[in-house]
Amino acid sequence: MRFGNVFGLLFAALVPVTVSACEGDCIVGITNAFLTNYTSPIEFVMDNVAKQISNMLPAHPGLETSRNYLRPILDSYENDAYNGMETAIFPSYFHGKCQQDGVDPPGCPNPDCPVVCGTPGSLVHFYGKLRYIAFNQTRYHLQTLATPGSDAYKQVEQAVLDADGAKTRRMIRIYERSGPYGTVPSFLTKREDDTRTKLQDIMRNVGSMLLQTCGGSEDGETNGLADCSWEKAMKEYILSFP
Ligand SMILES: *[C@@H]1O[C@H](CO)[C@@H](O)[C@H](O)[C@H]1NC(C)=O
Ligand SMILES: *[C@@H]1O[C@H](CO)[C@@H](O)[C@H](O)[C@H]1NC(C)=O
Predict the structure, then answer these.
(1) Which of 67, 138, 181, 234 falls between 20 and 30 A from 32, CA-CA?
(2) What is the dihedral of CA 20, 24, 26, 30, to 10 degrees?
(3) pLDDT confidence bin for 80, thresholds 50/70/90
């Protein structure tokens, strides 16, 4: 293996390189381009979720307030999105140089060689796949955070229960004045469980809301995800790398 690498280095030094792999700035730039373009569909989905949460709460808080309940999910998403996206696109599918042990497999580098190269040309050639990877990663990450079990979800749930509680406490005071005291705890537990369930019902649709927002069709290979494609601008951007 060590010899392979030495030969690879010698080759790289002696043979003029005409096709460069997407590395460094190219990887960072393309990863960030998808993350940036996805901010608007994500915001659209989260606003939709915020409205549904507002509808389920007795006080019907305004959009800003219910957006704040969701803040832990967005903060967590923003913290981890870069690493997740870079990994999903690059090592996982587009493999930098096509070379194996420093040698191009037969027919490489061209976009259809047996290893999918991470050259800008290859990213453009397989744009349908690239677009799908970016979508799938975004949906997977958001849906994971919007599922009970994540820390972010726990915080959102607590905020919603607290918001619901203001009304509950008022109802309990009325209840205490008018009814037998002994049944209050089960009344409270039932209401909290209902609120948890309603929140889960809203949140489990985050992934499919993103799919709808992106145009509805999941066919990654051809022309699906029409509203999260950005094909022309993205291809131009990708080809701006050498
Ligand atoms: C998507 O990203 C590309 C490359 O950065 C950019 O040119 C384009 O304006 C972006 N489109 C949207 C809608 O954000
Ligand atoms: C979607 O993304 C997840 C998380 O990165 C990954 O495990 C899964 O294999 C991807 N699905 C497809 C069809 O690429």
Answers:
(1) 67
(2) 140
(3) very high
C-beta neighbour count of 225 within 10 angstroms: 24
CA-wise closest residue to 118 among 130, 128, 107: 130
Q: Tell me the C-alpha distance between 238 and 20, whole Å.
A: 13
Distance set, CA 240 to CA 7, 22, 116, 148, 234 (Å): 30, 11, 20, 42, 10
Pocket perturbation via mutation, ligand 2, pick of 136, 142, 210 by most ligand atoms within 8 A of CB: 136
- Flag whether pLDDT at 8 surpasses 70: no
- Structural tokens at position 37: 């373009």
CA 216 to chain centre: 16
- Around ligand 2, the residues with Cβ closer than 6 Å are 88, 136-137, 140
pLDDT digit string, tens, across residues 37-60: 999 999 999 999 999 999 999 999
Helix axes 184-203, 25-56, angle to 10 degrees: 140
* Among candidate residues 36, 75, 20, 94, the one with its CA nearest the CA of residue 242: 20
Q: How confident is the model over 181-195, as pLDDT tens digits?
A: 555 567 777 888 999
Token duo for residue 202: 């809203």
Residue 32 CA: nearest ligand 1 atom is: 5
- What average pLDDT score do residues 198-226 get? 87
